Amino acid sequence: MKVLATLIVATAAFLSCAQTPADLKIQADSQSVPAPNEAVATFAEGCFWHSEIVFQSLVGVRDAVSGYAGGKTSNPTYEEVASGGTGHAEAVQVYYDPAKISYATLVAAFFASQDPTSLNRQGNDVGTEYRSIAFYRNEQEKQIINAEIQRLTSAKKYNNKIVTEVIPFTRFYKGENYHQEYISRNPENPYVQNVSIPDFRKFRSAFKGNFKQ
Predict the structure, then answer these.
(1) 113 and 54 in contact (C-beta within 8 Å)?
(2) Can you say how many angstroms the Cα of residue 135 is from the centroid of all Cα atoms in its chain?
(3) Any idea what the Cα angle at residue 141 is, between residues 117 and 144, rounded to 5°?
(4) How many whole angstroms separate alpha carbon 70 and alpha carbon 87?
(5) What 3-state DSSP class applies to 23?
(6) Cα separation of 179 and 208, whole Å?
(7) CB-side exposure of 129: number of CA atoms within 13 Å?
(8) 73 exposure class (CB count in 10 Å sphere: 0-12, 13-18, 19+)
(9) What is the DSSP letter of 34?
(10) List of domains in the chain
(11) For residue 142, what pLDDT is reported?
């Protein structure tokens, strides 16, 4: 999202009175500890503002928290991650009810909401912090991820090879508060208007999931 930070001031001024569109007013709980009936999944697929709303739009997901994972630096800041020196990617921690949505559905949504053949970038967001990663917590989750990759490959969904990393989950660091629920809180932001919202609507129109109303 850093690319569009240089958009002219006039564009931001024009959009400053924008209201959050109705289809983006998705309720999410701020509690970052899983309830007894919940499981947790972690994904990285480019800008975490986009990832948040993708997963939060699905029935069975209580919240998706923006943060950092996949690297070695402890308690990284956004600026450190953006420098590319931490090894972390922008990621989301997804809290969901397995009785309402399966891990397999989350994985399908993960692949459907990005270009998994794009190495170290999504759109104009370039850098290792924007790479695609599916983190697994056990062997069953690893098998589900690999099965979806095989399905998409066999179906020739993409012209290029899927480059998503499939790696074990180790640690997630919650991002700064101003990144949380960013799209719904900042609908006037030029990046949100020109990238996040169009990308989300494209995902919602194409993915055969159970969306919140």
Answers:
(1) yes
(2) 12
(3) 55
(4) 6
(5) helix
(6) 28
(7) 22
(8) middle
(9) -
(10) 2-206 (3.30.1060.10)
(11) 98
The 8-class DSSP code of residue 188 comes to T
| DSSP H or E run through 65 | strand 61-69
From the list 56, 60, 89, the residue with the least C-alpha distance to 72 is 89
The sign of the CA dihedral 98, 200, 134, 86 is negative
Q: Which two tokens stand for residue 131?
A: 């790479």
State pLDDT tens for residues 177-193.
999 999 999 999 999 99
Kind plus residue range of the DSSP H or E element containing 91: strand 89-96
Which candidate in 1, 41, 47, 91 is catalytic? 47
* Residue labelled with tokens 């309720």: 27
End-to-end, the C-alpha distance of the chain in Å comes to: 27
Beta-carbon contacts of 107 under 8 Å, excluding residues fewer than 6 positions away, are 134, 144, 145, 148
> Model confidence over 7-19: pLDDT tens digits?
322 333 333 334 5
Amino acid at 139: E
- Residue whose C-alpha is closest to residue 133's, from 39, 41, 201, 50: 41
Q: How far apart are CA 97 and CA 35, in angstroms?
A: 9
17 is known as an active-site residue: no
- Mutual angle of helices 139-154 and 103-112, in 10-degree steps: 40
Does the pTM surpass 0.70? The reply is yes
**DSSP state, residue 5:** G
